[in-house]
Specification:
- The complex is a heterodimer of chains A (111) and B (119).
- In chain A, 0% of the residues lie in helices and 49% in strands.
- By secondary structure, chain A is mostly beta strands.
- In chain A, the strands form two sheets. In chain A, strands 2, 4, 5, 6, 9, 10 and 11 form a seven-stranded mixed beta sheet that branches.
- In chain B, the strands form two sheets. In chain B, strands 2, 4, 5, 6, 9, 10 and 11 form a seven-stranded mixed beta sheet that branches. In chain B, strands 1-3-8-7 form a four-stranded antiparallel beta sheet, with no helix packed on it.
- Chain B contains no helices and eleven strands.
- Chain B is an all-beta fold and 119 residues long.
- The N and C termini of chain B lie far apart (39 Å).
- Chain B has strands spanning 3-7, 10-12, 18-25, 33-39, 45-51, 58-60, 68-73, 78-83, 92-99, 105-109, 113-117.
- The chains are: A mainly beta (111), B mainly beta (119).
- The interface between A and B is medium-sized, with 24 and 22 residues.
């Protein structure tokens, strides 16, 4: 099984400031088809997860360009360029190169 | 508007059974692979099952293999999860979620339904 590890587990950020979340996988996420199926999700309190980023860096429909993803192989990063109040919640990375698995989540809060 | 609505959750005793349903609307259900994902209280999300568009191929996490069965009815735009031999550790919010082409895994989610396994 692929283990996904996120850091930090909690991230207090001031409004308007950038935020960054890291995700590391226990094995390479490069699929035999050449793609890397690494996604990022946002889960606001009391809501289901929402897809933000797929295939490392592609933004899903309706996702603001403040959100960006990067990385390769086993190390990936989600960045929020300017945090807004609406961004509060838990962020998860997920790999689907193998049977899907999620990171443990990073709680983003406003400082 | 894409909508996924889960139903069938509730309280069940250990060893009991439940059948979850997920009603889809607002998109071409038969064109999407489907998943069930669960989230136990205070725990990370856990993928538990997947079914292809036709229903001909299914996959399960080891934690539920042999106890849970995923199925779908494209004529009714519905996804199902038959859960047997339930254990306390199956207590969680259960979500259905779509998988589209082009790496769009888990692109749409239902609101979730709570399953509680307790005596």
């Amino acid at each position: 099984d692929i283990v996904m590890t996120q850091t930090p587990l909690s991230s207090p950020v001031a409004l308007g400031q950038p935020a960054s979340i890291s995700c590391r996988s226990s094995q390479s996420l490069v699929h035999s088809d050449g793609n890397t199926y690494l996604s990022w999700f946002q889960q606001r309190p009391g809501q289901p997860p929402r897809l933000l980023i797929y295939k490392i860096s592609s933004r899903f429909s309706g996702v603001p360009d403040r959100f960006s993803g990067s990385g390769a192989g086993t190390d990936f990063t989600l960045k929020i360029s300017r945090v807004e109040a609406d961004d509060v919640g838990v962020y998860y990375c997920m790999q689907a190169t193998h049977f899907p698995s999620f990171g443990q989540g990073t709680r983003l809060e406003i400082k | 508007e894409v909508q996924l609505v889960e139903s069938g959750g509730g309280l069940v005793q250990p060893g009991g059974s439940l059948r979850l349903s997920c009603a889809a609307s607002g998109f071409s259900f038969s064109s999407y692979d489907m998943n069930w994902v669960r989230q136990a209280p205070g725990k990370r999300l856990e993928w538990i099952s997947y079914v292809t568009t036709s229903g001909s191929s299914t996959h399960y996490a080891d934690s539920v293999k042999g106890r849970f069965t995923i199925s779908r009815d494209n004529g009714k735009n519905s996804l199902y999860l038959q859960m047997d031999s339930l254990r306390a550790e199956d207590t969680a919010v259960y979500y259905c979620a779509t998988t589209g082409g082009g790496g769009l895994n888990f692109c749409y989610w239902g609101q979730g339904i709570l399953v509680t396994v307790s005596s």
